Amino acid sequence: MTTGSTRPLIGRERELAAVRGRFAALADGPALVGIAGEPGLGTTRLLAEIAAWAAGAGARVHTTTPEALPRTLAALPPARAASAAPVVVIVDDVHRCDGAARRALAGLLEAPGDGTLIVLGYRPRQCPPGLLAALTAPHPGRTTEHLDLAPLDRAGAEEFAGAGLCARHRAALHRDGAGVPRLLALLAAACAGPGTCPGDAPGSTSYPARAAAPLLAEVDALGPRARLVAHAAAVLGEPAEPDALAAVAGLDRAAVLAAVDELLAADVLRACALPGHVEFRHPLLGHLVHSAVPGGWRLAAHRRARTHHRELGRPAPRGARHAEQSCRPGDEDGAAELAAAARQALASDPASAAGWYTAAARLLPAAPAHRARRRELLASAADAALRCGRADLAGTALAAREQLLDAAERGAGAADTAEPRARLAELAGDLPMAREIRRAALDELTARPAPGGPDPLRTAALRTALAATAGPDHAERAAAWAEEAVRAAAAHGAGGALHAHALAVRGTLRLAAGEVSEALRDARDAAGAADALPDHAVALRLDALDHLARLETGLERYGPAARHFTRGLDTARATGQWPAATALAAGLAALLLRQGRFPQAAARAEEAVRCSELAGGQEPRALALCVRARVALEVHAPETAVAVARAACALAAADGFSWYRSRLALAAAELAAGDALGSLETLAGAPLADPATAPLDAAGRLALAEILCGARRAVGRTDAARAAAGQARALAARTGLAGPRARALLLAATVADGPAEALAAAEEALVSAAARGHAADEGRARLALARARLRLGETEQAARHLTAAGHAAAACGAARLAREVAAATEEAASVRAPAEEAHMLSQREYEISQLVSQGCTNRQIARTLGVSHKTVETHLGRIFAKLEISSRAEIANMIGRNTLVARPRTRTRPTERALVGAS
After folding, report:
1. Selection from 506, 504, 514 nearest residue 735 by Cα
2. Is the pTM of this model over 0.85?
3. Is 12 in contact with 60 (CB distance < 8 Å)?
4. Which of 227, 620, 734, 773 could bridge to 612 as Cys pair (CB 3.0-4.6 Å)?
């Protein structure tokens, strides 16, 4: 229901239900519902909804304000007849009640009258203590309920804003608007819509006057000195103490303190965690007030703020905002101050650092003597902008730098901007371009003559990046780059972030080459170096933690991997480094998928998608959608996974990080959806036809083998499916790790020649999966065991395994596994055990029967099995007796009809002992 508002009421179902409940119980006596809400949370909007609903329910509704409250109450009838309609009195902004309004309200609360529902809206921070006590005090003559409005959650915020936002604004909406409807409306009004909005972050953009007016009206309602101090606080743009406010506002301390009291009472400013300091109740309000300050006064105020900070010797970032706003072109001191501030802020606030580097370059004189310094500043600005996902700003900075180059300079010095240019190419998915940029830069640096020579740390960083992105086709060259990078980083900063990164990259290459012990050693060394780093050093090289955590995931060191992913993700979020946050969230989601923790994986995958919308390129978005598709395959319908994977394929650039990942995800989803031919066509078009040579890491090659095996088996290409399963076994054996071994054994179970072989493979898969805590794979192994037992006619044991598989699916949140278990359970219900024990042969008898069915003579059978001719005759006699037959042709007929089964070897008890030991 809506009541004159252009937006529907969202996220207030609990409050509406409480009011309706009190209304329905008015026969038991009058009731009070107090609704406490901070500014902008929509108390007035909720009260309007309540009034409309109550009127529709047949009540006499009286909606009023504190000023009109005495008149409204005087107009109410003195008594209400039993048959009269209920009365609903709604008072908004009760915190403003004073004098006559307060006395009238006290009378209403003391004697509300039968059949009366009182609904009061107020701001608790602005409510005088005495009035607040009266509102919340119990009363024997009425029932009372107090409701505290909470900010909207993320889903509610997105619903409130509607579908017309660009990706960047939508991703930042809940974070920047704090779930406050009035702020959400402001943010939505500032967005021009998908495809047209530049996506500037809140705080650096302007807002339509109509959307800003309600917030600015709060400041306009203040006294002149309070407005002046609010303007000063907006200029300072940070928690401010009275002395700073006095210096900027041009007032004495006593006047400032009096104004602060007024601002606190109006809830424009609030006390903050820093003792003696105040700040705006929300940064957006401060930004709006700053934009509304008269331009001349604002310029002078920034100069006063800069002087104040310099006199107190504050760190450069504290004064950088004011230098940026007040310095004139040609101010070399201002440029130096901004550059120093940017260097200090790069680890904690790269977005501000990018702006300050750009401003510093703009302030420097245009004389040729300053061109080199301006180029350096613009290159740094591009690097900082890319850290926070602003590819557009980085491109602008690099283009401005290019304009400062003479014709003779354009061929040299490319190495100075190699990293930002390469990262721009990576964001666009152009990995070949990124590699070429780094190779050229490395060649340029290594060719520089003495005495300066190449910078060892810069060359080590380039080699690390090249090794990390070289791909399987250049494994030897990548290994050489990684070795050189580790040596150089260790020689010039052992234990640093670059050293940890180089070790992680080398370990990843070693793991891909099957050198597991060496990879494990690199992972431990890299973890030791990374764990010793302070947070600011980690923030400057988050890709070190990303590569380390992915290496640890591949080595099945899940605890350290989760810790490093989480530390990196927390740092990336806190510093606004959205490309890194996307990769780290996606990596953590993949780790949780491997463990079978699907609900947690889904949450991290969604976080990766949100971060990717701020990451400034299609490649991060494709990466995030790939992991979302993998999650959807396990926890949603296959059709959902297909749709998400196709969206990833549409974004992934050829030869980009996500090109092959997106095709793998789509092929897996198509196979699960029943389109095996489509799955094979997707892989062929990638091209991904051979796990042994595919340009994928070890986990990707194993996943490819799984898809190929399943798809080929589904279309009747049994031999090709077995070949893919064999490749999976080889890949798993190369790693020597339990997780890949379990997955390969599960494939072997699906393509086994008979139930006994499938049973053996599934038992081994269960042991391997349990050893690493892969809960979903344990469930899949149980399912494979159940299917094998069913084929052997052992329905009771099959049922036990199906029950265990169902429990595993429920614990993991694995809808896909649950569907497979349900199908197998339905199949088991229609299967009966063999009617006669005579159809169950020993393993040796079954082997001989198979050879007989192939036309082998007794001597041929003896040679094949390595036994004597007499032994074969003895076994044949037992087979004829058990089956009550007299000819070899009848044996062949029964084998062909699958009416003979082999009794499995006794393996249950050893398996159970192994499982207990592994747990």
Report:
1. 514
2. no
3. no
4. 620
